[in-house]
Design a protein that fits this description.
Blueprint lengths: L1 E2 L1 E5 L13 H10 L4 E7 L13 H14 L4 E9 L11 H4 L4 E5 L9 H16 L4 H18 L4 E2 L10 H11 L2 E5 L7 H7 L6 E4 L14 H8 L9 E2 L12 H6 L1
Parallel strand pairs: 2-3, 3-4, 4-5, 5-6, 6-7, 7-8
Antiparallel strand pairs: 1-9
Helix pairs in contact: 4-5, 5-6, 6-7, 7-8
The chain binds zinc ion (ZN) (2 copies).
């Protein structure tokens, strides 16, 4: 399986050297590897350790536009991987920042700053605690899924990154919400979520999937980890994975339907 459009990559614009390379270096490497497209998607601003500085978004936009003019063998898109920061489904990107982006993704990460004190106590802390106290997980599952569903309703998201990673969620309910708004579910090549069980749980819903590297350095572009194996185990129609080609008998090759999603 080969990623044709790596839709989820990070650059030096994620703060504190969280990712290693410039936008141009990422694009150069993607070209060398023969990718059709790459999306730069640094972390949302509420992450104090690796969030973007909003003032950099116009700079990033100009750089992406320059590279699109410079190269005609690859499409470059700009997005943000926003953080889900509250039980009300809030994410950390404003209207003003969104206008610089082709796409908005959202996912859950540890270490972000919640939008309100209430969300600190009712969302961040219990989710952290659930990492260490398994009996708490079941209760968190419903609350977290409510937050994800609310997020899908509130924002024009293109993709949810690594669903199921870092907090328990009810995949069928999330897939139903994603189906409603045509939001892509990510099979992340680094975090191993969605895993085979999660893909299988989402499969009955009319949702599309994408496999992405979540590269934080040029050496990681195109990384698929266990994604191919998980897709095979889950037994879904490979054509539902919109940004990859398969090197086997599936006959699905060279597709980048993700580009359409990015241009919408
Ligand atoms: Zn992430
Ligand atoms: Zn990421």
């Amino acid at each position: 399986m080969k990623i044709e459009h790596d839709m989820h990559t990070h650059t030096i614009y994620s703060r504190n050297h969280h990712a290693k390379n410039t936008i141009e270096e990422m694009v150069e490497q993607a070209r060398k590897m023969g990718l059709k497209a790459i999306t730069i998607s640094d972390h949302g601003r509420n992450h104090p350790f690796y969030g973007i500085r909003p003032k950099n978004l116009p700079v990033m936009r100009a750089e992406v536009d320059r590279l699109n003019r410079k190269y005609d063998d690859i499409d470059v898109y700009l997005g943000v991987e926003a953080n889900l920061i509250g039980s009300d489904g809030e994410i950390d990107i404003g209207e003003e920042e969104r206008k610089y982006c082709d796409v908005i993704y959202a996912g859950y990460h540890f270490g972000y700053l919640p939008n309100t004190a209430a969300n600190f106590f009712s969302f961040l802390l219990p989710n952290l605690a659930a990492q260490f106290i398994p009996p708490l997980r079941k209760k968190r599952r419903k609350k977290n899924t409510d937050a994800y569903v609310r997020m899908c309703e509130r924002y024009p998201l293109t993709m949810i990154t690594h669903p199921g990673d870092k907090m328990p969620i009810d995949i069928p309910r999330l897939a139903e919400a994603a189906q409603e708004k045509d939001i892509i579910l990510e099979i992340n090549g680094h975090h191993d979520h969605m895993d085979a069980d999660e893909i299988r749980a989402a499969a009955p819903y009319d949702v599309r999937f994408a496999v992405n590297s979540d590269a934080h350095a040029v050496s990681q572009i195109g990384r698929t980890g266990h994604a191919g194996e998980n897709i095979r185990k889950a037994g879904i129609d490979p054509a539902r994975v919109i940004n990859v080609s398969f090197d086997d008998e599936t006959g699905v090759e060279g597709q980048d339907k993700a580009g359409e999603a990015c241009r919408q």
